[in-house]
## 1
Amino acid sequence: MGPLDKFILRDNALSLNDGEIQIKFQSHWYRSLPLSCMDVTVTINGQPVDESDILIEANGNQYPVRQMPELDKEWLFITDAATLHVKNNQFLQKGKQYEVALNLELYIPYIIVGKDGSALLASSSVTKKLICN
Amino acid sequence: MSKVRDMKLASGLEIIGFQSLKGFPHLADDRISEIRGLIEKYGFEPACLDANVDVAIRRDRLLTNEETAEYLIPQIRMANKLGFPVLRVQMTAKAEVIRKLAPLAEKANVKLGMELHTPYQVDHPAVIELRELYEEFDSPYLGFIPDFGTSMRGIPEALLNSFREAGVTDELIVVTKEIWRKDVPTPAKFGELQERASSLGANPAQIGRLNMAFSMNGRQQLRAWEEIIPQTVHLHGKFYGFDENGDEPSIDYAAILKVFYEGGYKGYLASEYEGTAFTDEFTGFEMVQKHQALCKRILNELEAKALTISDV
């Protein structure tokens, strides 16, 4: 949690394209990290989105979010956004407002804090009412 | 860079590769020319490029020493290509990694500056091991970058405020301060905090946040820096905020600068504002301006005093 949290979900973060929900997010760390150093979960109007329904896109490449821990070569540059692609199981509609909550956990790969070699956890949660574009 | 020049803040440039350069450390030749062109256009002298030693980049295990060296090779080469004389490296690179990289650093004409960021005090066992390696190599290409956050006099108010914003109770802040003041190694502090914070009902995100009190704020004695001044290739002048007199309440600048000045250090001092991690109340530009005013005031006093002594 910190001042960069305001960049995680911007006002235009939520959209509906080809019947698919898209949620754009940015990282809250001061330098770029690869997707392997991130965990992301999301809820819409309080309903958790099933992990198996989400793909993550960075630099034009898409992967199941489950695969993120393996993606140590796919970097998210600090001024770029990643996009979550979600099946529209909740029947969102363009022009309506929804409450999106995104939890972004960053594992800082050069700060080792645990005796077991685990990385520092820098976690942020943002909840925002967004108009679906 | 343009604004720094307009404000006459500095002529030396330090950048973090993974922050400022998309695609770092693999950049095409035309981008390298573009970056060098900008440095020249704004009249900067490249002072230091910051590498990152991301040993936990995989989630299943840490990188081996061999893999860590491989991870750093393109970063050393990029420092050379961009014209930076020093590459900041981090203590996640063990002495064995530096041993592997020393020949390349010399060949690339890039000094490896090991950042001594808390908890890595000059007498930390891993730093001692590195100092032994430096002694063995006796090379100008292996040096240190002391970070003033290693030798602080208090936890910055901006950080404590950020704990409160994360829902940490005043009781737990008192506990965190108490653990911070203990003369025990940092891992022991993480452990004690984990235990005591959990029993006080803190969640993992809050404990992660509180860990920053120890991961960012060290308590090394200032004079201990004297031991490594001859190997110091760059300085990180860390700061978090200023009081109404322009002093940094959490870092004793007058005392630290005296140690490095009297120890004969002649290189760059970077203005490293880290308050942005906790508050956006101030801009980096205005804070760097205050930092430089403070450092100039102290250095002018030291200089005047030295002249008086040499007159005698």
Note: The two ends of chain A are 27 Å apart (CA to CA).
## 2
Amino acid sequence: MSTPGHVSDRDLSLYQLLRPEVLADPYPLYRRLRTVDPVHWDPYLHAWVVTRYADVVHVFQLFSADRTPSPEQLAAMGMESLGPIAAVMVKQMLFLDPPAHTRIRTLAASAFTPRRVERMRARIEGIVHRLLDSVQDRGRMDVIADLAYPLPAIVTAELLGIPVHDWPTLIGWSADFAGVLGNFQHDPDRTARVVRSLDEMTTYFREHMHRQVREGGDGLVHALAAAEVDGGRLTEDEVVANSIITMVGGQETTTNLIGNGVLSLLRHPDQLDRLRRDPSLIESGVEELLRYESPSQQTARMAPADVDLGGRRIKRRQAVIAVMGAANRDPERFPDPDALDVGRQNNRHVAFAWAGHYCFGAPLARLEGRIAFAALLRRFAELRLDPDAELTWRQNLGLRGLVALPVRFSPVR
Amino acid sequence: MVPAAFVVLDALPLTASGKVDRAALPPPNRQNEPAAEPGSPLEERVADLVAELLGLPAVGVDQDFFLLGGHSLLGAQLITRLRDTYGVELTLQGLFDHPTIGAIAAEIERMVVERIESLSDDEVEALLA
């Protein structure tokens, strides 16, 4: 299908994200899509790509999340090797529609109510300060390795009720699984590693589920295993699959919120200063950092029926990619969208998605972000990018984050 | 203004007011156009591989892997098979940049030549021994 303005389908394809320079700054590509063809059939992806704020919200409200091919469907395509991964994914709430979605989500979300999350504040502050203590005399740190990875990994382990000292292992597992979640490209070399690591995670969570059921506990794994919903219990496979997605969801995105957020502030020193001088801006500041470099840039849905969207006819069961990273820069919704403004008001971004699949971990992610940014700004003066640093974005097209973020600073005594 | 493609329809889609609904017109399916046949043996092998993967009777040298129905998972399979057959490491971005049968074959040839040229005389002799 030709598009107006002499921009080819090839130029508009999300496959362009495979180019490192596009991945480093995807916003010109998003802007092109939004202005030239906001509901775009990407013939290379075989999917619709939706980039306007209003359309993305519409897709979240009405479209189906049930989108993962079953092991049987994969086998029919000659991809049996992916079967074990799909077998877990089809049970995860991320990929379910009501009513199956509702019962699992209600259970998991109960661990993340604002009240329960608020009770973790002191604990999170303690972890952040301990992590900053260990680097402050060096005058330099890698924000990713020294803060953004360990903080959510430790918090998630506590929340799930698994041993906190296992956090380095959880990081490795989450990264492997996130490689599958965030990418539409498929790396055959990665498959074997992911299948192996999924096997390890499954064994691990199954053992902890049995232990928590035996010994009791207030972790989420136990809550999922013990709860009765509509007179029935979750199966062991469901408990394990959803413990895994909670672990991955709790880590990958929070890591990217902290990493991307610090980078955005370093790139806008005036906003960094403003936030440092006025700590009351921390809440609106975190929302703005979520909008500006969204940790999760896109997610997929399926059309529940033939649907008209933006003047296009989307056929039943066609795939739709909702690009939150583009919607969050839509000038129709956000005035001056490419400017970072830590005091921005009316900032209802879609970084956590919207409607039924709105991230139930959002209150926790926000709290971790507020505490981490505030502590970093309060304790470390003259925060700046390490001049020797070369920024590399992780090869994950959906989950946007840096490989490393080396910075220098002067500790405030 | 000569049309670049024609699509034959049973009936034109209409809007509620009875006008032609342009938005509902299907995209031209370029894969139904007559395809140039593969020339070199390498192009033939690649064409056979792609046809087999996509479940098509035959594909032409100018046809695009993605527009024929190839998605990223099938692309990964194609890349694996090309690696097993020719020992070259095409990436998904490489496939996106060189998506036709002819361009894939040219890429393979380029990479094979590059590898041979990078070998030392001893390595070449070892291979030929």
Note: The interface with chain B takes residues 1-2, 13, 15, 18-19, 41, 43-46, 77-79, 82, 184-188, 308, 311-313 of chain A (CB under 8 Å).
## 3
Amino acid sequence: MTQQQRTTAKPIPMPTPETKFYWEKCQQHELWVRKCNECSQTYFYPRDICPNCFSRDTEWIQCSGKGTLHTFAVVVRPPHRAWMEDVPFVVAMVDIEEGCRIPTNLVEVDPDPSNPGETIRVGMPVEVVWDDRTDKITIPMFRPA
Amino acid sequence: MANIGRSAVIVGVAESDEMGYLEGRKSDLQLHEEASYNALEDAGLKKSDVDAIFSAGNTLGLAEHMGIHPSFTDGTSVGGSSFVIHAGHALAAIAAGYCEVALVTHGAAGHSRRFFGGGGGEGGAADSPGAQFENPYGFIGAPINYAMACTRYMHEFGEQRCREAMSEVAVATRKWAALNPKALIHDPAAEIPLTMSFDEYHNSRWICWPFHLLDCCLVTDAGGAYIVTTPERAKDLKKPPVWILGAGEGHDHGMISQMPSLTSLIARETGPRAFQMAGVTHDDFDLALIYDSFTYTVMLTLESLGFCGRGEAADFLRGQRTAPGGDFPMNTAGGGLSYTHPGAYGMFLIIEAVRQLRGECGERQVPDCKLTFCHGTGGSLSSGGTVVLARD
């Protein structure tokens, strides 16, 4: 890849037929996930057929936007030049109230890479906030609740 | 199911002519062909003997590059564990009579690509689940993904205990690397002190908390290859055969956010399958070779394979028992942490296993090494392959 081709923009999700609804709802600042009517499990990321029991009887449900922190890490060395100005920042997974785990960033925290436990702990309550990355794409992030 | 253990043997292993930080001097394909040439030489076989090719991905291009017309081809690509899994596939293919001389090859200018105008970046299409749901948050590259799993372990079993286990692995592995002349640790550019103390580990800079620099594997340029054949064919060859006694493989997710439990690896299934096929148990091994992408990978693998219980790695590893002179020698080449790691390390586990079983390891030789295993972990802690190897 040449210097010219190197982008400084963060990646923008490219919706597919089975995720289009999810991203449209994100744009309206609503979090929706898939739920299986056969085995009653919610799951993420969105796909048409339940990855647990392979039932086709699945639907979208709207989420409260609340959850708990499943895990996190404090990124010090940027993974890509797009995050050069953001380090240190927090990558995280959140167990949402509706029962599935979603990848995200934990924001509105001041991560100290030498002692992150001061401000961030696994299991802490968190709530969704919205990052309008472009006029078409908004991505859900979480902050301490 | 029929037990196909002992149907195939490894008869040649080698690295590329040079390895380490090659600063753009070698392409992936050059590293492949050098290693393949050297492994055939080690075995006493010719390229025209090869009737099967195994690599992670592009077997079409590789076979073309080396002028090989295989009658069996396997491009299984499930991360750095692939080259351990290939040993099981070669065993199965040879047992079934599909081929007689299998070349398993790896070559990657991982370091040069990263620092000398290479692309890097994550695999997968722009609309893949990873590109939609992980990459936008900076879930890019192994250190970040694996670090999140490690934090979860710290939550479940204690941060201090986890850190203690990680530091034992970090320090012990560098002691082995100091005994391996091919280890990158001997190159000052590696940024790893040749004799590394626990303090140096704890004080090394953060890459992604909870990972220090010294928790992370290298990114080098290197090739490796091994040759698998039938026991009959091996009788006329240069070196004593190394038996593939058992193999197990599997994966339980792709993306890190899909991992069922961040503190349990698929090794919990692949290990017992391989050990059972081989008819061996945990106490039988003279040497353990475990993919060390990160210190955390090693401690988790030991637990998942059942060498100790979940959350017990700190107790198991305490007191440098995996270091030279310890009672549980592990990763004697210096591992991905400090020997070499061109982006995928599985190949180099097999090479070290065969050399140890042949008694070729000089200063780092494990005395009377008769039985060992390799366990590879690939992807985002996603795939696993276990292979049990023995000498006569």
Note: Chain A has one helix and eight strands.
## 4
Amino acid sequence: MNLTSLGLMPVGLMHYLILSAVLFAIGLYGVLAKRNAVVILMCIEIMLNAVNIALIAFSRYVVPVQLTGQIFALFVMVVAAAEAAVGIAIIMAIYRSHQSVDVDKLDLMKW
Amino acid sequence: MVFDIAFFVLAVIIVGAALAVVILKDVFRAALSLVMLFFTIAGIYITLHADFLAVVQVLVYVGAISILIIVAIMLTHDARQGSTSGKLRIPAIIVGLLLLGMLVFTVVTTKWQLNNTPPLEPTTAAIGMKLFGEGGFLLPVEISAILLLAAVLGAIVLIREK
């Protein structure tokens, strides 16, 4: 099998963007379908990582010497760390009041 | 050439680990495959010549966020129940596949303006100059410091015993 004739080699921007799209779709499925709040948080992290892959791929293939995509990915990481800390604190507070982190049982704001 | 092969190996591991995170019933195993996912994404950054970000990925994600998530699993005792799917499982699969199809279609049909300049290597000094140098991103760096402080204080306030 010749990888070059199939368009698989050499690896370019498209490959990284498709990998990022696959990861983002998996993360979106997890966020929508899962019931455990901690797993939902994990899937949000998957989506943020997918975005970072796309940003760094753009940085590498479109503006290779300016590094703006990498700087942006760095800020995404900062926000992701803050989001994980606050998100887990919220989950802990919910667990303390409900003895559960099942998002299907959290219908306090439903009327 | 080495990077091309490395990309495919890492991509297969990444997609497998991501699927394991959403499919596995055991929350703790899902968290461990998430750690593997973070590690392999650091490898992907290396194939993209982003050495500094690969190290930051290992430090922040593998070192900090995964530990935070594992602590959260330990402290919430829903781990016995496992990570089950809700009623919206089938619609979620449809939405995910629709989004994936749309994204792949856009990526394949768009004519990207590629630049064939060889990438910078190593990137650490250049990123430092960009962040702190003249005409750089100094204000966003300061704002992100305030954001992290607010996040730490917010987490403490939320989790404190009343």
Note: Chain A touches chain B through 76 residues (CB under 8 Å).
